[in-house]
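tokens incoming
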């Protein structure tokens, strides 16, 4: 089992969600977040170094059985990337091991709970 976290531009959320649903991945958690990476570097303004404001992004989290990981990555890459090969600030995908998953309603555990 894996936990996939993807952070990308807010305006790409509908495309990403539709791409995941088309791949039979429909159980996602969506949150708004702010941050910056390479998309915003410190600037010099009137002789002072200024850190630009944080950029609004969207964060989705998906608990996946192992056989769906590559499918989900492909769907997110193809739908979150800006046209013409992508741009700085398109986002990131993180995949981490998921030690346990428990469905509260039934008590099911592991891949069955996902």
């Amino acid at each position: 089992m894996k936990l996939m976290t993807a952070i990308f531009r807010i305006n790409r959320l509908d495309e990403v969600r539709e791409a995941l649903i088309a791949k039979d991945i429909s159980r996602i958690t969506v949150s708004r977040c702010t941050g910056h990476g390479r998309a915003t570097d410190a600037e010099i303004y009137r002789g002072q170094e200024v850190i630009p404001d944080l950029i609004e992004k969207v964060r989705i989290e998906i608990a996946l059985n192992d056989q769906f990981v590559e499918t989900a990555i492909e769907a997110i890459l193809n739908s979150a990337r800006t046209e013409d090969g992508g741009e700085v600030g398109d986002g990131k995908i993180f995949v981490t091991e998921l030690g346990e998953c428990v469905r509260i309603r039934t008590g099911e555990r592991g891949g069955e709970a996902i």
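note: Strands lie at 2-8, 29-35, 43-45, 48-50, 55-64, 91-97.
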